[in-house]
Specification:
Elements: H1 2-14, E1 18-19, E2 23-28, E3 36-41, E4 44-49, E5 55-58, H2 65-77, E6 82-87, E7 90-95, E8 98-101, E9 107-109, H3 110-114, E10 123-124
Antiparallel strand pairs: 1-2, 2-3, 3-4, 4-5, 5-9, 6-7, 7-8, 8-10
């Protein structure tokens, strides 16, 4: 599963189409600066990138290992130091060893995730 996630993350970040059994990266061509890239897992939009680095991500209500792996591969490809995970069956974002509880249906902008330590949210022990 890890190789597939890395392949899809690379397609998403570098901006080309790719397809596997359960994951698809689609490109909507506009202009070079304004293309829209979308990653779908089982038909659910889990990541979207607009012009530049305007990126949004979501578990789409599915806190599964596969969904987290696809999103974490994108974060890794972008050099981010946090990851989607789970703690006591609840979705969390882990940054610098601290677990921040999230909802599995939330949609996050990448710049919001960059500053998660400033959120007013519950932290796991």
């Amino acid at each position: 599963m890890r190789n597939l996630s890395e392949k899809m993350a690379l397609a998403f970040c570098e901006g080309y189409k790719s397809c596997s059994v359960n994951t698809v990266v689609k490109v909507e061509y506009k202009t070079e600066e304004n293309n829209i890239y979308r990653m779908f897992l089982h038909g659910n939009l889990i990541a979207r990138r607009g012009g530049g680095m305007d990126i949004t991500m979501s578990l789409c209500g599915y806190n599964t290992r596969t969904t987290r792996d696809r999103l974490n591969s994108i974060l890794e490809a972008l050099g981010r130091n946090y990851r989607f995970s789970q703690h006591n069956f609840w979705p969390v974002i882990v940054k610098n060893g601290v677990k921040y509880y999230i909802r599995s249906d939330d949609v996050f902008k990448l710049e919001e995730l960059d500053g998660i330590e400033n959120w007013n949210c519950n932290v796991a022990a």
